[in-house]
């Protein structure tokens, strides 16, 4: 078993790199199947969020998995290499445990990543790309995350990305109550954002989505309107705050569209938070004078405020994870011995069956049962002890003592006899 975690995250790679290796829903199943069918990995799960893209794999060839990642996204390997981490065995398990527990997140202790990891595992399960190793890894990962959150206060007073967006908006506008808010998308992140902004009672809220049917249940919960994405060019001028998080592979808000909106607004500012990876808003929009554009990375400073209590809980959480890693590695090492144990048992079983057949034939010929049993037991003893005896007798002089100690240990012998 070659457990490996390969990926990039907000610690190692800027947004411009992370968005190039993100796996949208439309590509995820294809990627899972392609990687396993290429025989580069026998098992794989892919976690792709705004802050990270990570491959959890069982592979004999880590370097080939890294090359596959670059090839799949049409990126030169040398361009990706400086940002890529490859964590083997216990480091892979430790990383998975830390991610699920919220210790590796931009928002220390946040809980959303655990749900995202469970979704990634379910996707791999549905695609048939999970096996014994990854099943055990994620089973233990979710157990560790639960233990960390129940035993520590790592998630106490956690400032979510959605709450950070509200705080940033409050720095731009005197009161959110007087602003009109547009939410583009209808996924979990948009749901969190609209929940936080609704608490500030803006004068108007609207949800824009590719399919109105999916957006309508969310909008109705907050008494918000619904518009299709095709109406964005005409609707943008009416909104002061825009929060966007879609799975679009290409930007949906371009500089030209926003220039026209600002002109119609007579240069009243627009505040935009782009939580999508890949980005929903063209990067050039950040250069506009009357647009305040923030990406997921830009929210980092806000979410790090007030972390003192949570940071104090990290040591306790890390201790839980360290113990869990040791237990998981012990299980992996045990699984690695299975082929040897199976081979040993198969060999003993062959000897047993052979001697039983000989004994049955002897009994059928009318031989004395006691003599048959004696002969069978002697034959079994000789065959089972032949290999260690032969190894000891024919071992080089400088290896004999080591082999003798090993045989004594295996058979529980006293070296004094």
Defining key terms:
6-stranded parallel beta sheet; alpha/beta; 54% helix; 10 strands; 18 helices; single chain
Question: Short summary of the structure?
Answer:
With 417 residues, this protein is of the alpha/beta class.
| H-E string | EHHEEHHEHHHHEHEHEHEHEEHHHHHH
Mean pLDDT: 90
Total beta strand runs = 10
Radius of gyration equals: 31 Å
Query: How do the strands of the widest beta sheet line up side by side?
Result: 7-6-5-8-9-10
Name the overall outline.
elongated
Biggest sheet record: 6 strands, parallel
Low-pLDDT residue spans: none
Number of helical regions: 18
What structural category do the secondary elements indicate? alpha/beta
Give the percentage of residues in beta strands: 5-15%
Q: State the helicity in percent bands.
A: 40-55%
Please report the distance between the alpha carbons of the first and last residues.
Answer: 41 Å
Describe the structure.
The chain has 417 residues and is an alpha/beta fold. Helix content is 54%, strand content 13%. It is built from 18 helices and ten strands. The protein has a six-stranded parallel beta sheet with strand order 7-6-5-8-9-10, with helices on one face. Strands 2-3-1-4 form a four-stranded antiparallel beta sheet. Helix 10 links the parallel strand 6 and strand 7. Helix 5 crosses helix 15, helix 7 packs antiparallel against helix 15 and helix 16 runs antiparallel to helix 17. The longest helix has 27 residues. The two termini are 41 Å apart. The mean pLDDT is 90.
